[in-house]
Amino acid sequence: MMPFQPVVLATDALIYLLVLLAGSLAWYTRRHAHLRAPWRRVARSRTAMGSLVVIALYVLIGLLDTLHYRPASGEDGNGQARYASEVMSVLDLIATPLREHSEKTYSAPFATHLYARETIELPGGGQVRDFPRLKWGGAHLADPDADRGADLLIRVLGGVVLGGTAWLLSLAVALRRRGHRWRRWWRDPAIGPLRSAAWAGLAVLVLLGLTLTLAGAYHVLGTDKVGEDVFYQSLKSIRTGLVIGTLTTLVMLPAAILLGIMAGYFRGWVDDVIQYLYTTLSSVPGVLLIAAAVLIMQIYMSNHQDEFNSLTERADLRLLFLCVILGVTSWTSLCRLLRGETLKLRQLEYVQAAQAFGVGHFTTLMRHILPNVMHIVLIVVVLDFSGLVLAEAVLSYINIGVDPNTNSWGNMINSARLELAREPVVWWSLLAAFVFMFVLVLAANLFADVVRDAFDPRLRERT
Amino acid sequence: MNQTRPQTGHDLVLDVRDLCTHLGSRNRPVRAVDGVDLRLHHGETFVLVGESGCGKSMIALSTMRLLPPSGRVVDGEVVLNGRSLLDLPEVEMRRERGGRIGMIFQEPMTSLNPVMTAGRQVAEAVRLHDPQHAADPRARVVELFRQVGIPDPARRVDEYPHQLSGGMKQRVMIAMALAGRPDVLIADEPTTALDVTIQAQVLQLLRDLQRETGMAILLITHDLGVVAEMADRVGVMYAGQMVEVGAVDDFFRQPRHPYSRKLFRSLPDASKRNQGLDIIKGMVPPLDREFTLCRFRDRCEAARELCGGGPPPWQGETEDGYRCHLGVDDIHLEQAVLPVTRDPVENGGRPLMQATGLKVHFPIRKGVLRRTVGHVKAVDGLDMALHAGRTLALVGESGCGKTTVGKALLQLLRPTGGSVDFDGTELTQLKGEPLRRLRRSFQIIFQDPASSMNPRMLVGDIVAEGMRAQGIGGDRNAQRARVAELLGQVGLPADAVQRYPHEFSGGQRQRIAIARALAVDPRLIVCDEPTSALDVSVQAQVLNLLKELQAALDLSYLFITHNIAVVAYLADEVAVMYLGRIVEQGPVGRILNAPAHPYTEALLASVPVPDPARHREVLRLEGDMPSPANPPAGCHFHERCPKAEPRCREAYPPTVALDETHRVACWLHQE
Amino acid sequence: MMAYIVRRTLYAIPILIGVNLLTFLLFFVVNSPDDMARMHLGAKRVTDEAIQQWKHERGYDKPLVWNSAARGAGVVTDTIFFDKSLRLFAFDFGQSDSGRNIGHDITQRMWPSLAIAIPVLLVGLLVNISFSLLLAFFRGTYLDLWGVVLCVAMMSISGLFYIIGGQVLLGKLLNLFPISGYDVGANAWKFLVLPVIIGVVSAIGAGSRWYRTLFLEEINKDFVRSARAKGLSEQRVLFGHVLRNALIPILTGVVVVLPSLFMGSLLLESFFGVPGLGSYTIDAINRQDFAIVRAMVFLGAALYILGLLLTDISYTIADPRVRLE
Predict the structure, then answer these.
(1) Interface confidence (ipTM) of the complex
(2) B318 touching C, CB under 8 A?
(3) Angle at A320 (CA atoms; ends A319, A325), nearest 5 degrees
């Protein structure tokens, strides 16, 4: 019997598809010099390599959170495994302590006591109003007030040493394999980008080390209203952000590319119809279209409760639907861009030469037009990513985003902002969401800049 | 202001000494200008000539201190009237720039600010450099406009650049440069983007202005004809260096440097019709390295052991000398090889392709319902015939519709009217599969080798594309063998198959384009300005190839061009086009030597000839070609025609045959 | 020009019909008029008569888009879609599901929206242009580099944090402005300052970076070289030649959003409790009031199309090369 039963949610399947696509594209690119060249330019940028490491960390966490399964919960009479109804992910498994260490309600980062006074029953009878000890946070300390500082210091140092050692070891292995000398590694301008990547790697590894030493013993980012660990929530939100940022584009790409190049290539009535289509769609204010669609979906879901097996599945479908509807509102700009570019390309002489040979329309589109607009598609995909991650937060804030049960930065902000009026302020949920989002979006923006510069032929001619 | 032209030789205005300009990264700079000396005297015209990338523009930009951000002057001096320009603070330099030294650029289309009136742009210069008129520059601007020959100047000052033609824009640029009454005018390829008739006007204007003001002109060009016409002295540049300097007459009588000599020999003209053109082997070396030997050595036929000993010395004076190890009499170049043996094909029998009354009209739509209110008549009733194995040159200025004709004949653009007969088949009615099948018989080669090939395809696939589309050439192996054969035929290495177009130079890419067209065994090739984007020495290679292929494969060419020298070298027959119609057609000898139509006459007279002794009679055409959307009534040419009569205004002249082969559409030849 | 405007206005009609049909279908695909009636009548057990009655009163007792029982033009006109859409084209938005007059609400609420949106637009334009000109002037220096980094960092922050941060910092800690609320008349300004500041600041990153790109694109053009060759100073080149040309895309980019300013800002208004159209929309979304959402979709689309038309016209004014034919 299997100790678990794999589960593939709808978004999981699409993510696997995306990974597959990215993998085969990478394989194809490796074999073609002219496709490899712009990526070489990207690899020569220190900013790009540094941010790539950060993005890779997010992607890793997101992928871990995508491998879903149901744990076995026992056996039925026939020796067949019975599986829990709750869907878990590998990330949940790794972060089991974080997931299970829930407190009663709010507590500040690294706190050992709750954030609110409660009436505590004294062992000898009688009651007192005080901040009760946390069940998990700093529970190992005998006298929190006296010991906490020293304990934190030791753990921080331990984390740094752990991360630093791991970094040095992996660097040593990498240098040995590439045959570099240490001294050269510090100075050589030719490997500057690699060095930036290594520095970013150091930051990542130290953070990982700190997580290992601290997160088990404390709530490093505090707990929320129902006592859930905020750090755990932030980690779980990564997958949501990445899904919105990538699947939305994946969903809209086929339509945008097909319609865009068809409109530009065939012109005439095909162009008129496609132009009408995207002018109509883009004239609807995006937020309102999303609102209308999400509203309708909510009504549909509440009318058809029984069609969903579990809450997780329902929340997942809602996430997918959000991607689709965001895609519907965002394909028009890419379509317009591609139409314009195709109009230019079809005038080019190599397209006319193909025409002079009697090459068919389909072949011309696939061989001459599509490969020559792909750089625009790539630039738009990369540039859109960060905008979509930011959009998720805003949409969730006005309740037309992801399901309230899904972990997302938007939901974290949404529930935390009501506590801003409290005295003293509960700030850590906001800070956590801010830092996690900011780092991802900043890295993505910096990376997107480099990609655009590397792929845009207009920019290249200028330098 | 009415100075007579002073003697050259004494009053030095601009002195450039040992100029070195680098571009790009500091680790591996491109040495665009590498130790150039240049002297310019009052009232003289010094012409810098050289092929693209030789650094001639960079000398101009270094002098003006207008280098692009990646460029810098690393060594040398530029002295203008005793002031060292490179040492001036920027504030001082601004006073010189546009004041005592003015500059005009190659692209008049993009060199003017599109949202500012022409007059205001000139007024800016007047305000800066002409204190007398700074307060109210308008009168001075109008005067400048008049000086550069802009008709109706008082109205033109308020027009925006897009309302002016290319020639007018270049005149505005000149007016702008003249505003500061400069001592030196730098003109960087000022007429390259213009048609020959307009070029003749602008060059004439520059000469007149020089006579009036006595300014010195530093003219940059790649056209030896322009050199002969304009220069007092010439400097030839090669790979960032000056290789020869001398007085224009001496230079044309006896060029000294091997490179200069080869340039002359690679020029096409009528006298070389029965032979191949001389070519310069190899390519210009990349400039991102230091040279220890002569830069031309690898391409030089006269090179000897002596040339392997260090950089070549400058022989003679700064103002009259050349850079070579060898003495003038020691330089021996072989005579042009490859005589092309081609039996003259008789102009008899049925033409291979014949167009009758061909029309291509583009509708102009206006109003709420987008009704068609008029047509741009790009091609308007054109008759012509092309015989097997012969070359018909279609000649005309830009915008006359010659490219449209080429595309309409091949049905890449569907004609609005008329018929195109290809070897007995009517093409205009043909559609779908039959037309697709027939396409292998007629192919096209384009002007721009950069955009005529899909940058994402391998050269092998590019050449094979036609065979695959037409389903010919057998299986994959047979096709591969054929591609290799074709590449060999056009003189490219076999390993080109596995490379991408951008790895090849312009001339090589044009040869790939020729191989691609040949792959389907066509009988007719439309060559749409195939050598216009190429340098002279590269042009020679492509022309040779075309000529050889014609002899070997009995091809017919429709050669679309504006370059008369190429026509004289290559064509059997010539058709001259003006505003959508053919005005004159006949054998090449007749058309070039005894043109019947006034437009042909003017066109030929406008072409600068690379021979300073033959100062041409100037038959100047006034004005620009009218818009094909709104052609003048009567003969389309009458507004610009020096011989126009009243009846020319009334009706378009019918075509008359002067003899069996020579036809012309002009009232002067009506009985 | 006139013909062009007329043609574009006519072209707007099929687009608006399309927009309307889209929202209409989206809604009724999952939600039949019967469902609507049940939801609004509220009770668990509703009689069929009550449903019919509700539908009849509100005109939902006809077929949706195609009346096969009717004759002639009635096939199309005697339907819910035609009834409900035709009114929209006369800008009669009818009643919300909670029974309020939507048209009246809109005229009431657009003023607070404008009071925020217009200052945000104008001040933002001024700030962004000045900042990006500064960066363009010092292009290639460290000032430019760090300016761009700052822009990228600023645009990587969610708008929500600008609002929350502004409220906490300027409102709560420094106590300079009221955190939220609105007042009519002369007192309104103190409620407006904070949202306007936040609206401007949150757009600096993306705006300045975009404008800087436009400036740099112009700076590399041939005519700028000609201007330098005249001997103009760098400032004159920048202001006289570069700015004028770069302003064309900037201004037309502004014109396209001008009409949409009426729609207000969803976030700013709801955070600051400003009774504008933005918060109106959010409230409607949260209350699931479809009539209002549909009206706002229609209004938004109409204003967007108006914006496109105004953009084209402003092009002809700003750029002498463009003529509308």
Answers:
(1) 0.84
(2) no
(3) 100
